[in-house]
Structure formats: structure tokens, C-alpha cells
Amino acid sequence: PPAPPPPPRRPPPRGRGGSLSLHPAVAASLLYAVSTIMQAVATRRAHGLAAVAQPLVVGGLVVDGVGWLLSLLALDHLPLFVVQAVVAASLVAVVMLARLVLGATLRRTDVVSIGVVVAGLVVLALAAGEQPATHPPAGFTTWVNVAGVVVAVGTAAAYRRGHPVLLAVLGGLGYSVAAVAARGAHASGDLLDTVLQPLALAIVLGGVAGALAYLRALERGAVGTVAATVSVIEVLAPGIVGLAVLGDVVRSGWAVPAVVATLAAVGGCVVLATSPANAAAEEGAPAATESEPA
């Protein structure tokens, strides 16, 4: 008799483990928001280099570092399109904290956008589930490290006189390179193995270049435009690479909901990026006090 057909390919593990793996990403997003508010408060007390010595600035950098480590932990178990969307959604916590701590204005559109972003993240979590990192294809390490060098060189070249939008694009690409490298690096082992392998170069170059370009863009351009540009790039670029190159998958039957949820979450983040509350948090300037705009 003919041999029985091979069993169907088993999908990546899903279920409650996915929701548990989401916790580090959510915690990282909240910590990034707390760090933003801490530094905003500090810049109201001092300006220029004097602000760097403020305890709140130092504490904010420490909180940022803890958030970054938690995001690395999340990338070990969740696909890039989920983790990056959750990290970008720190804008939700930023505008809410800015309202409570800085007295910033929240528009009706901000409140609606918060609901849209949260709903989008729930759908993305359901569409993905837990997916441990897989080994990247041949040549991945070389190309990602080259990308990290290109972004770093581009940031150095544009830092003094570059247009704010160009700097924002470089910031988003830098964060994207770091996230993609971290996802690929996790396939080789635990966090220590990640730090000790060649992809660590791309993680560092991308992260540092991204942060410098983003901060410089905030200095030279409109907060809303800069934050929106970075949010869109740091979600879409790594998500596409994860799906096309790193074996990230969407749960069967959830492709359309995942696309809609991603676009909704990104759109909500763009709206929140233009919020007066986010401007108050990023600039550290006195919050808006006029009546709520339409």
C-alpha cells in the first residue's frame, strides 16, 4: 500500500505562553514612557548640559536601559511586528502621564486613538502568539551589520545640518536595525549569547545612532512630525523583515485582522505623536492650557 502522507507542518507554539511573553514588551513600553516624563520634568528645572546632571535625567536613562533589556527579552519569544508595535505604543502611556504629571491637554482624538491602539495591540497579540526566534538565513549577520554601519554613518553626516525629517527617518531606521539584529541574535541562545555574538555590533550601532538621530530631530523639528515618522518606521520596517526573512508568521486565518490591527495601531500612534501632551513630554516645555481643540 502507498505510504501515508506526511503530517502537516506544525505551527509555532501559541496559547497562554504568548500572552505571558507579551508582559516584558508591555513593561518596556511603560518604562520608556516613564523615562520620557522623568526627563521632561528635569528639563523644566535645568537646561542645556546642566539638565544632564539632574537626578531625574540620570534615573530616566537607567529606566530606559531596563526597558531596553525587557524589549530584548520579549524579542526572544514574540515576532517583531508585535514587539515593535507594543514599544511604539509607549505614546499611549506618554500622553496619559503627561496629562497627569505635566498638566498637558488631551484632545478627544487622543482619547479615541488610545482606544484604537490598545485594541490593535490585543488583535496583534492574538494573531501571533508565542514564536521563539529561529536561526536567520545565511548572510543575515553581514547585511544587518552593514545596515547598522550605514545608519551610523548617515547619522554622523546629517547630525549638524540634516533636515529634521531625514534625522527622524535615520532614527527610525536605527531602532529598526537594533530590533532586527536582536531578534536574529536571540536564535543563538540566551541574553549573554546575544551580547557576545557579531550581531551585537548592529544592536549597539543601530540603538545609539537611532537615539542620537531622534534626539537631534526633536531639537530641530516639530515634535509631532518627528515622533510620528519614527513610530511608523520602527513598526513597519522590522515587521516586514521579520515576516520576510526571520520566519515570523501570522496565525492561520488572522492575516487580514493582523494587517488592519497594525495599520490601526500605527495610525493611532501617529495621532498621539501630534498630541499637545506628547509635545509637552518631548519638549519639556510648559503644557498647553487652551481649551480642547476639535
Please characterize this protein's 3D structure.
With 294 residues, the chain is mainly alpha-helical. 73% of the residues lie in helices and 0% in strands.
Helical residues, percent: over 70%
Mean pLDDT, nearest integer? 82
Structural class: mainly alpha
N-end to C-end Cα span: 73 Å
Poorly predicted sequence stretches spanning 5 or more consecutive residues? 3-18, 285-294
Number of strands: 0
Rg computed from alpha carbons, rounded to a whole number of angstroms: 20 Å
Please state roughly what percent of the residues sit in beta strands, choosing from under 5%, 5-15%, 15-25%, 25-35%, 35-45% or over 45%: under 5%
Secondary-structure element series? HHHHHHHHHHHHH
The biggest sheet amounts to: none
SS field, number of helical segments:
13
Shape from CA axes? Answer: globular
Topology:
Elements: H1 16-45, H2 49-52, H3 55-75, H4 80-88, H5 90-101, H6 108-128, H7 140-158, H8 164-185, H9 191-195, H10 199-220, H11 223-244, H12 255-273, H13 276-283
Keywords:
294 residues; 13 helices; 0% strand; mainly alpha; 73% helix; single chain
Question: What does this entry show, briefly?
Answer:
The protein has 294 residues and is mostly helical.
